[in-house]
Amino acid sequence: MILEILTYPDPRLRKKGVVVETVTPELAKLAQDMLETMYDSEGIGLAAPQVGHSVRLLVIDTRPRDEQGNVDTSGMTELEQQIPQPLIVFNPKIVKSSGRTTYEEGCLSVPTFFEDVDRFDYIEVEAMNEKGEKILLKTDGLLAICIQHEMDHLDGKLFIDRLSPVKSGRIKKRIEKQGYPTPEEAREERARRKTDRTKQEEPAG
Questions:
Q1: What is the mean pLDDT of residues 2-11?
Q2: Is residue 5 a part of any domain in this protein?
């Protein structure tokens, strides 16, 4: 089932997620609905607070795909390739981190806005999977960035909160005054940025 994705400044996005003690059938269904919603919105990650559920749950699939929609892992790091995706993660907690990296992030809850955000380059995350089993994720690359981004949502934080006060304030005021583009315009913007990024990654000459 496709769920409604909340957008800033909806106050529900500021609620902290509650720790999940047991993966109930209802939570398992929520996770599947979140995955369906994420794919439908062409996102790579989604946290439960973004769909109005204040629990510590996130879903992720950062695997690159070709024009036919087939998964292409050639651009992933070795650590990323070792982690099966899509990921369904409850109660994630970073227990080790190192290095810093900057990446242009966007968010389904702040559609069409993209800004560079500073994150840990490598992380180790303790969590619980959809079977209720304890797991340890060790990763870098886009997967590490996405996990950190989605974990912010579990604490009521958006990626625009990590920008400078001036830049963050400017974006928030613009949204509050002008609102967001239509869903069609948002999809076009994502497609344009995807094309631009692909061109930037192509070798010169």
A1: 97
A2: no
